[in-house]
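Hi Q.,

Before the meeting this afternoon, I wanted you to have the pyridoxal-5'-phosphate prediction in hand. No need to reply - just skim if you have a minute. The sequence and ligand are here:
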Amino acid sequence: VSWVERDAAVVWHGFTQMACYGDNEPVIVERAEGHELIDVDGKRYLDAVSSLWVNTLGHRVPELDQAIRDQLDRVAQTTMLGNGNRVVIELAEALAAVVPVDEPHFLFASDGSAVEQALRIAFQYWTNEGHPARTAYLAFGDAYHGDTLGSVSVGDGGFGTDLLGALRFPVLRAPSYHNPDALEIAADMVRKHAGQLAAVVVEPLVQTFGAGVRIAEREAFAPLQRACNETGVLLICDEVATGFGRTGTLFACEQVRLRPDLLCLGKGLTGGYLPMSATVANSRVFDAFSGTDLSERTLYYGHSFSGNALAAAVALRHLLLLQEWNVLDNVAQRSTQLGTLLRDRLLPLAAVIDVRLVGLIGAVELRVPDGDVLFARRVASAVTRRGVLIRSLGSLLTVVPPLTVTAAEIDQIVDAIAAGIVEVAGT
Ligand SMILES: Cc1ncc(COP(=O)(O)O)c(C=O)c1O
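Predicted structure with the ligand bound:
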C-alpha cells in the first residue's frame, strides 16, 4: 500500500476533494533540509509555497530548532488564562517594539483565529464604551480572512462558502482592489455608516487569496485611515498573510501607512514552525476592557493553546533572526530578480495573461482554455514534477518562496514554471 493510499484512507485534507486526492500527485513529505522538502521516496522539492505562506527562513533552521529544544527543557505549554509564562512575556515585549500599533497588548491564538478574536474584541469594545448599536463591519469585495464563521462573514464568499449564507452575518461591502477607487469608496462608506459600524477590516497593500493577489496603490490607504480617525470606527488590519517580511517590510502597514487599532498576525510569526497567531490591540481598545473582576467588561475569550510556550520561544528567536540575517534586504533583492524573470520569461508565453508581484508574493495569471477549470492545477502539477512545489489558485499560479530564497533558486523556480506552462499549454 502506498503512502498516498494510506493517507487517503485516514486523513481528511482541507480545501481538497478527497475523491481525487491521489490523482493530483500529492507530495508526501518525510523531512526537509533548508528550502527543500524531501518526500517519502527521497525526491526533493523546492518549497515555493513556503508551506502555505508560513515558512520564512526555510526548514530545520538550526537556531530555530535549538530555541524549541531549549524551551522543551523548561515547559511546552501552560495556560494564559489568568496566569503567565516567561517566554510569552519576552515574545510580547519583543513584538511590542516592532508592531505598527500604539502601546500594544497581545492576545495569542493559533492560526487565523486571530481575525475571529479581532472581530469579537471590536464588537465588545462598543458595548463597553456605551454604544451597543455599533455592531456592523465594513469589509472589501474579494476579501479573504480565514475559515471560521466570523472570518467567513467578513470574507467575500468564494471557496465553497456560498452555502453558508444562513450562517454568515451581513457586512457592508466596499469594492475589491480590482477597483482602483476601492479604498476611497470604503472611506466614504465609513463616514456614512459610522453610527452603526464597529470596525472596518482591511488587508493592507494586497488582497491575497480571495482576489488572486491584487495589489493596491500604497497611497490609496490614507483616506481610509482618515475616515477611521474622524469617526472612531475601529481599524482592523489583517496581516496574517503579509506580516513578518513577506511584502518587503516587516509589516505591510508600514508601506501603506496604516496604524490599526487591531492587528492580526499569524502564518510567519513562528517562521512557519508552530501554529501561533496574535491579535494586537492598541491602548484605546485595550483600556476599554478595564473594569472590576469578573465584570462584563472582561474579554471572555481565550483558546486552550493561547500563548503556547514552544511556539513563543521559536517566534522570539525568529524575530531576532529576521534582523540578524537582514532578511528584508534579501526579500528586496530577490523580489526584483523574480519580477524581472516573471516578466521576461513568462509574459511572452501565449498561456500567460499577467504577472503580479509584491515582495515575495508572486502570481502568474494563466489564459485558461474555455471551461477547463483544472488547467492551472495541471500546470502546478507539471511544475511540481520538475521539483518546485507550487500551488494554483483559480486561474493563477502563486509563487511564494521562503524569504531567504537564493538567486539560483529564483532561477530554478521560474525555469520550472516556464517549462510546466509549455508542457501543459503546448506553447
Ligand atoms: C489574510 C488572511 N487572513 C486570515 C487567514 C487565515 O489564516 P489560517 O489559515 O492560518 O487560519 C489567511 C490564510 O490564508 C489569510 O491569508
